[in-house]
Amino acid sequence: MVVVFDADRPQREMRVLLQDLAAHIIDGPNAAGAYTLQLPAGQQAQALSVLRSHPGVLLAESAPPGSVRQR
């Protein structure tokens, strides 16, 4: 999953959001400010909905299969 956070929001708010979703940043930010997240299996659809509705998230999209580098 690829996410861009609002830079004006406190980092703590974004960390709590990611923790609540059991999401982990595995890459980023890239030049556009996007982070790649890893989520538990079966949780992507729900997490995408939560992220898209959060006022501190500017963009949340599913990453194409095979496009995510693992650390």
Give the key terms.
single chain, 71 residues, 25% strand, four-stranded antiparallel β-sheet, alpha+beta
Describe the structure.
With 71 residues, the chain is α+β, with helices and mostly antiparallel strands. It has two helices and four strands; from the N terminus they run βαββαβ. The protein has helices at 11-20, 44-53, and strands at residues 2-5, 24-27, 34-38, 57-61. Strands 2-3-1-4 form a four-stranded antiparallel β-sheet. Strand 2 (24-27) and strand 3 (34-38) form a beta hairpin. The mean pLDDT is 90.
What is the multimeric organization of the chains shown? Answer: single chain
Largest sheet: 4 strands, antiparallel
Q: How many H/I helices?
A: 2
Measure the end-to-end span: 15 Å
Shape: globular
Number of strands: 4
Give the % helix: 25-40%
The SS-based structural class is alpha+beta
Based on CA atoms alone, the radius of gyration comes out at 11 Å
* Low-pLDDT ranges: none
Strand order within the widest beta sheet = 2-3-1-4
Quote the average pLDDT.
90
Order of helices and strands: EHEEHE
Strand content: 25-35%
Provide a compact summary of the structure.
By secondary structure, the protein is α+β, with helices and mostly antiparallel strands. It contains two helices and four strands. Strands 2-3-1-4 form a four-stranded antiparallel sheet.
